[in-house]
Amino acid sequence: MRKLLASLTAVLFLSVSAIAQTSVTGKVTDLNSKLPLSGASVVVKGTNVGTVTGLDGSFSITLPAKSNVLVVSFLGYSVQEITAKSGSVDIALSTSDVKTLNEVVVTGYGSKIKKDLTGNIARIKGKEIENMPVASVDAALQGKAAGVFVNSQSGKLGQAATVRIRGNSSISASSQPLYVVDGVPITTNDQSTYGGDMSPLTDINSNDIESIEVLKDASAGAIYGSRAANGVILITTKRGNSGKTSVSANYQAGSSKETRRVEFLNSEQYAELFFRATKYTDDFYGTPLNDPSSETTFAKDWMAYHSFDKWLTDPKASYDWQDQAFQKGNFQQGDVQISGGNDKTKFFGSLQYFDQKGIIVGNDLKRITGRLNLDHKAKEWLNLGFTMSLARTTSRRLPDDNQFSNPLQSIAFMPVTPFTDPNTGLPTGAPPGDLNVGLYYNPRLTVDYAKFTQEIFRNFSNVYATAKILPGLTFQSEFGVDILSQNEEGYFQTQTVRNTTTAVRGSGSNAAAFILNYNTNNYFNYTRDFGKHNIDATVGMQYQQSSSKYNSTSGTDFPSNSYRKIASAATKSGGSSSQSDFSFVSQFARVNYKFNDRFLATASIRRDGSSRFGENERYGIFPSASAGWILSEEKFIQNIKAISFLKLRASYGQVGNAEIGNFPQLGLFSGAAGYAGNAGQSPTQIGNPDLKWETTDQVDVGLDFGLFSGRITGELDYYEKKTSGLLLNVNIPATTGFNTQTKNVGKLENKGYEVVLNTQNFIGKFKWNTTINFANNKGKVVDIKGQIIEGGISSMNRVMEGQPIGVFYAVQYAGVDPANGDALFYKNISGTGGQLDKGTVNPAGFNQAQRVVVGDPNPDYIIGFTNNFSYKGFDLSVFFNGVIGNQINIYGMGRYSSANFRFEDNQTVDQVNAWTTPGQKTDIPQARWLFNNGAQISSRYIVDGSYARLRTVTLGYNVPLKALKRLKIDRLRVYASALNLLTLTDYPYWDPEVNADSFDSNIAKGNDFYTPPQPKTIVFGINIGL
Amino acid sequence: MKKYITSILIIAALATGCEKKLEIAPTQSIDQNLALLTEGDVLVTLIGAYDGLQSVAAYGGDIMLLNELIGNRDDIRFTGTFAPLSDAWRLEMTASNTYGRDTWAQCYNTINRCNNVLSALDKITSSPATKSRVEGEALFIRATLYFELVRLYAKTWGDGTNTSNPGVPLVTTPTKSITEADYKPRSSVADVYAMVIADLTKSESLLPASNTIYAKKSAAAAILSRVALMQGDYVAARDAANRVITTGGHTLSTTVGANWYTFINNAGNSPSEYIFSMKVTTQDGANDLNTFFGINAGAGTAGRGDCKIYPAHLAKYEAGDARGAYFSVVGGNNYTRKHLDRYGNVSIVRLAEMYLTRAEANFRLGTAVGQSPLLDVNAIRTRATLPALPTVDLNAILKERYLETAFEGNRLPDIKRTRGMQSGVAWNSPKLIMPIPQREMDVNAKLVQNEGY
User: Fold this and answer.
1) Which of A18, A456, A954, B236 has the least C-beta neighbours within 10 A?
2) Considering only residues 877 to 906 of chain A, which have any Cβ-Cβ distance to chain B shorter than 8 Å?
């Protein structure tokens, strides 16, 4: 009791002493340009008291009694210490020596100064991705951090990107990182029922983001335990600053087109090749070419039919169906941000309107977001606050790539087929015209006569309270929700009946998803200096529950195309409701120790329990340890003038992957097995009570350095990640009634290195700095217990021991036999001593040829390369990114469109070089109608996917302050920016940054299936600060 | 200190309270141990077996489609871009053919559903009749699928030694966990036929004479007649067909066209002529024959139009044959009208075939059980608005069978059992036998691959 009284007295004393504190306000600017620096850190030396400058560079801070020295730091500038008195103080920073080292980095349940980190955390400032004309944050991360691979998959708006941190560490479970927004692990799995995966990150306004931290190694990630094996991405939103209320408004608009087109045959080339192919077949069967049953007659009739007989009179008329698939996209975005506050209360608010029309016909996305973040100091010992963001995203979605309604599939159309039916003036294939004209369904009809829209309301909200209990000891309690409410509505008019066969009299659908995901974090933080020792400890718990509910209805037989709601459907053709839940209960602890500002150590541990794990394996424990040594604090390094900073660090930890689905451990029967209107059930899953998370052990060693007074800084890292207990859908004989059983078997590893290099090439009036990040990752499947795991187009992606995940496994193409035009394939039969028989077979012997590894969809190197220039009010930023050493499978289109007239699909223009005469050297086999001469699954369709891309280039001009004073505004900036302006690649189809959504899985990467390319977007913008 | 204690209490309360929240049961599915406890459970599992049977990879159409494409290159020009089907049509299949893989897996998936039903018959206590019916239906579905599997994936009955030719693995118990015993070798062709015959015979005895849209006595007899015909056991084939005709309660449709367009013209009901069929509704079921043989040729019709019928086939019908006119011409190509209905029921076996089976068997045996071969053939000819024949021989009977059941999946088995030829390939060519799916070969070392793959 006495102790309690004593501490209460201490608390009282603290509150009293607060009254004696002084308040300082001020403004931080660039020494040269005099422009305000927003986001600079202002900290009272030797304390935790600190703030960040607002948009106009202003700050306000309350000095504790014992100190009056302010430490002011900002990325790229020298740290400045000044002694402040009450009142106003202006600070001008000069560009810098040791940049980034004093930056505060968010670590998960806490934060830390970059210099003191022992794990690998990449920090991306919100500024680096602001105003990018992409809807979703994950796509914006591309090339920004070493070892973070981002592939946007396709140019469809809001499409989910593939994000891999340090390689792919799972085969069957998710390989996407855990996303945590302001402390809440958010819902990131796709909820759409139509088309490819939609990224649930689309509902975040990326201009609200203060910083993104990527926890890459196990030491950084282990505090997220069973959910950190794929890395953790922490998104922290902007908060208010005390001082003047600043208002910033931004507007940008622009337009986009496809990055590239592919050249196809025109009508004359097409007919010539068609006749060449049918002549072969007629000759083969001994049919006279003019016989009514000959293939040549068929070809003539077929071209006449599919051109409304136009081809008979005008064989030169030619139509590039890409004109029907692509459109000029446009883009506009308006933002208003307000921030400000006083000592007690600070706020940040924003509104954004985002409107994009895609480059593929029938694709658009609109989003409106609002946010309010509030922090309030209720008592000297108690801080409270909340964040709330609301978003409404509506988009008109495209079908998945493997649908005839995918606009790009119309490139298969004969070039003789006109866009418009001359008899009706309507799009080809639209009734009352002939529905069957057009080799396939005309996707234009789905654009004109159908609509599939998705509307999402998303609410991220979070409340917190932080109590200072004793000196150095705080307790934080947070409660957050992520509510996702989605409605999808589709209506297909009768005109689309050739594709949507249910739409005889119209077909409609409506589906809803409602996901309530809530989370609470409760933890203590304790910080204390004991002489040269510093300890910083965290202990706490987290509980998360997510509940997803779905329902859908569909109907057919509408009175007319004017009725589009299911209420009007005479036949309610389907209806469903379902639910899926999961929960996690976790406890965690972490200790950071620092000695004499040079020796650093961190240890953490987390215990996770989850409803997803089997009866016998309900809890997992995930430990980590790491250490660092700041060598530049040592005399023997300080003597070396060139070295301004040097730190060695090493870490080890164990993390898990719990993204294994919600009930993978149970033997299940499902009720979805009705017949002819009667309910039925059937076994759907074979159980496994021992099922648990996948475990990844990771070692990381790193070196952080600064040279020549920080003109050159960088980081080098080497890591090894070993994943075991891989969750595999182990193939079992289908004769059991099941195809697979889920088991924790298998091992894989990823090894790699990462290099980050920042240089300041010019400082002074003309500034030029360069940032390069470069990473190499080698993945290898170590053991999959002999399983055959395949996926992708024609099951060509395969998981094989000793190889990276998802290598392309196919027969090796050996070119064309010059003697007869046969396609040739290497036998590759293993002989004695493992020698492969490099003899060849023609199509008749194709079954003899053995498959080998013919490519790898995983890049060897991923690179980001940024150059920033500034001179007076001008600034220029040029950002390249690229991948090297990966292959792409084009069999999806190639088997039809680059297949020397295996089918009557229009062909890529190179196919005119198909073999014709003995002795001819070509890589394209003879055209043989209805014969498979080289269109077999082979390495003919595996091509290099390396590319370098001018991802963004931005040129801006800041109107000088003098001119602004008269206008009474703080800042005026105009800029022009381009996305994907230039792509350097040998890739033969549209875009090498590709992965067909219809086939996408962990192992099915690098597939192209008429996949829309990335947009090339140019925008102009203006930014005003008040 | 109070704050400290309060915070500790908050954490402790949350930590202990939340542990219980880890017990979450699935909402859509149920644990297998809870799935077959009552009679009702067994009955819905039987419905689940029909659902499996109706999958596109099985009797939703692919079994018939594969039998037509592999067996009928002479009549069908397959132009579609579905490469696995195109390969089948060109007799260039590889072991990784996805249709071969999926049909195999779907048949066994459905067999497992049947085995679940058969393992829980003791739960049926309401009446012996119900128990017999359920057992009969499950045995019927299982035996029928084994018969389809052995015809597609193994050598023809009588091509070499049936007792040593590998058939397909026989699984007769439900799979509840995976053990070494689940890695089964192929049973011999003879063993598979023996089990099929035993199951169908028992099924015929157990099934009721009428059973709405589900398998009834006549269905088991009809498949038995097919099995016997495949074996050249004409007595058994004749007698089984005769049982269907005389006691099955089926009647021939009055016109050729009345057998089709079940959804558009017949409210989704199968005609009396159908002995067994899969019912398609707007909500459930699919007709993959429609997908590939069908085309847009009027309201309610649909399809990819991939199977174009050569003019040469049409020339085989006599003038005035209603069946010869039963084609739609779209874009200069002929499409059979049997499969145009988007929601048309999928006919598995119909009465006309029984007449022709009885005629053929009687003719070969020199008997006239039930009816003379001539009158049986003429019954079918008359329905097709053709004049009655004065006499009949085996070729006439087989031709009638070929034209009557064209594009319904009988072509390949008929070529094989009559030792015929197709597109220059003899009945016993390995090219007419589907490969054991590569996936199965990879996972089960006890399987042997068919010749040529």
Assistant:
1) A18
2) 895-896, 903-905
Does residue B161 belong to the interface with chain A, where contact is any CB pair within 8 Å? no
Contact A475 B3 (CB under 8 A): yes
Q: Sort out which chain A residues have CB atoms less than 8 A from B111's CB and list them.
A: 737
Model confidence over A603-646: pLDDT tens digits?
999 999 988 877 788 889 999 999 999 999 888 888 888 898 99
Rounded mean pLDDT, A689-709? 90
pTM: 0.82
φ, ψ for residue B292 (rounded to 5)?
A: -100, -30
- Classify residue A596 by burial, with Cβ atoms within 10 Å: 0-12, 13-18, 19+: exposed
Torsion sign, CA atoms A989, A991, A992, A996: negative
How many residues are there in chain B? Answer: 453
CA distance A657 to A693: 5
Show which of residues 234-263 on chain A sit within 8 Å of chain B, judged by CB atoms. Answer: none
ipTM: 0.90
| Partners of residue A583 in chain B, C-beta under 8 Å | 18, 21-22, 24
Cα atoms found within 13 Å of the Cα of residue A252, Cβ hemisphere only: 26
**A761-785 as b/e: b if 16+ CB within 10 A:** eeeeeebebbbbbbbbbebbbeebe
Q: What is the token pair recorded at B302?
A: 């649909």
- The span from the CA of B449 to the CA of B97, in Å, is 14
**CA pair distance B152, B64, nearest whole angstrom:** 10
Pick the residue of A735, A795, A797 with the most B CBs within 10 A to test the interface with B by mutation.
A735
A596's tokens: 């004499």
Report the interhelical angle of B98-119 vs B128-153 (nearest 10°).
Answer: 160
Q: Please say whether the beta carbons of A889 and A793 come within 8 A.
A: yes
In chain B, residues with a C-beta closer than 8 Å to the C-beta of A795 are 96, 98
SS3 B241: helix
| Cβ pairs bridging A and B (under 8 Å) | 275
Question: Nearest by CB to A680, which of B22, B33, B48?
Answer: B48
Task: DSSP letter for A720, please.
Answer: E
Find chain B residues with C-beta within 8 A of A306's C-beta: 331
Pairing label, strands A209-215, A121-125: antiparallel
What distance lies between CA B190 and its chain's CA centroid?
Answer: 20
SS3 A800: coil
Report yes or no: A201 and A161 within 8 Å, Cβ to Cβ.
no
pLDDT in tens, A347-392: 999 999 999 999 999 999 999 999 999 999 999 899 999 999 999 9
pLDDT over 90 for what percent of chain A? 62
Out of A293, A436, A618, closest to residue B310 by CB: A293
Distance CA A294, CA A292 (A): 6
- Reading the block at residue A655, the tokens are 């993390």
| Residue in this structure with the two tokens 């012996």, named with its chain if needed | B128
Is B14 close to A469, i.e. CB distance below 8 A? no
- CB burial of A317-326 (b: ≥16 within 10 Å; e: otherwise) equals bbbbbbebbb
DSSP structure string for A438-471? SSS--THHHHHHEEEEEEEEEEEEEEEEEEEEET
The answer to whether the CB of A47 falls within 8 A of the CB of A69 is no
Selecting from B11, B30, B47 the residue whose C-beta is nearest the C-beta of A678 gives: B47
Which tokens hold the place of A476?
């934080």
Task: Find chain B residues with C-beta within 8 A of A3's C-beta.
Answer: 1
pLDDT at A199 over 60: yes
Beta-carbon separation of A846 and B94 below 8 A: yes
Predicted confidence at residue B15, as pLDDT, reads 58
